[in-house]
Structures are given as structure tokens and as C-alpha cells.
Amino acid sequence: MYLYLLVLEKETRVKSLMQFHGMSNAAYVVSNFLFFLLIYVIIASLFWAFGVALNLSVFKYTAITTMGLFWLLWGLSLISLAFFLSVFV
Predict the structure, then answer these.
(1) CB-based contacts of 9: which residues, under 8 Å, 6+ apart?
(2) CA distances from 78 to 3, 18, 31, 74 (A)
(3) What CA–CA distance (Å, rounded) separates 22 from 85?
């Protein structure tokens, strides 16, 4: 999904329009990154909530800090990979 949105942005040339109106490249990249991180946090939170509601043993016996750190690092790596792969598309 992240890669699709980045490619769609390149196809519609939204970034060049934003730069034309004075937005810096760094601000655009940071806003995209934070938007993708927000989407990931919402999805991971829903996943965790359903896991706890269904009383799955993975969620019951794993410390929340360990699982949260793993999911945060996983999300950051997914977003970074999407930014990296968008260069080749």
C-alpha cells in the first residue's frame, strides 16, 4: 500500500505541484513518512486489540514492550523499504 501511494504520487506529480507552491522537499518527505507511520500504528493497534480479545497466547505471554518495539521497528523498516523501492518504479 505504501509503495502504491508513493507511485501514485509520482504519477499525478503532486510533489512537483507542492514544490511549485513553495513546500520544501524535506517537509514533503517527512509528512509522507508520518502519514504512513500513522496508518501503520492504527493497523498494528487493531491487530493487537484483536489478538488480546481472542486471547491468543502470543499476546498473552509476550511483554508488551517487546512486542511494541518489534512492531515499531518492523513498521519503520516497511516504510523505509517502500521509499527505497519507489525510486525504481
Answers:
(1) 15, 32
(2) 10, 25, 16, 6
(3) 26
- Against a cut of 0.85, is the pTM above it? no
Rounded CA-CA distance 48/32 in Å is 24
| pLDDT tens-digit map of 10-56 | 777 777 777 788 888 788 888 889 988 999 999 999 999 998 899 88
CA distance 77 to 54: 28
Residue with cell 505541484: 17
Q: DSSP characters for 42-66?
A: HHHHHHHHHHHHTT-HHHHHS-HHH
Question: Alpha carbon of 26 to those of 18, 30, 69: distances in Å?
Answer: 12, 6, 26
**Rounded CA separation 62/3 (Å):** 31
Is there a contact between 86 and 3 (Cβ–Cβ < 8 Å)? Answer: yes
